[in-house]
Amino acid sequence: MPEFRGQILQSCIYGVDIDGQAVEVTIMSLYLKMLEGRLPEHWQRDMLEARLLPSLDNNVRCGNSLISQTDFDRYWENKFKDLFGGDEDIRFRINAFDWTSQTRGFGRIFEEKQGFDCIIGNPPYIRVQELKKWEPEECEFYKDNYKAAAKGNYDIYVVFIEKSLNLLSQDGLMGFICPNKLLIKESL
Asked: Domain map of the chain by residue range?
């Protein structure tokens, strides 16, 4: 049973979080769920020999899911290089994630299926006014690269929704935990 669950994890579950510790907690939680129930007779030896726990390094990644490396590199050259003198601290803090990269992203998913079959998320709820206080470069990027952030005030969760809609396959499904004000005020 754990072997089957491990195959499901490696072939069906993918995730990105900007917080490296959240990535580690997610991987550990997935391992615990995989091992739930009856374990094989020699599970301790199998774990030590790395046969029981599959590597999830290619499935759960650390990065900014809203800013792709390619888009950010182009944006960086056009807007920030002269302004910040190529400040590498900003690049490091933004931690762009390249969804379509074969080595650092999930390029194989986009080659095989042109997107994800299902995206489930719980985006943060942060008003742009708050975000501008501590991430002004990101706000500028969102404003120039997302329709949901192009004008007026917005909450960052609508940017996550727009990004997810762009990552879905044609028949894909999406489920997000969002405030009910989305149905009243916000529109994509």
From this structure: 1-62, 67-188
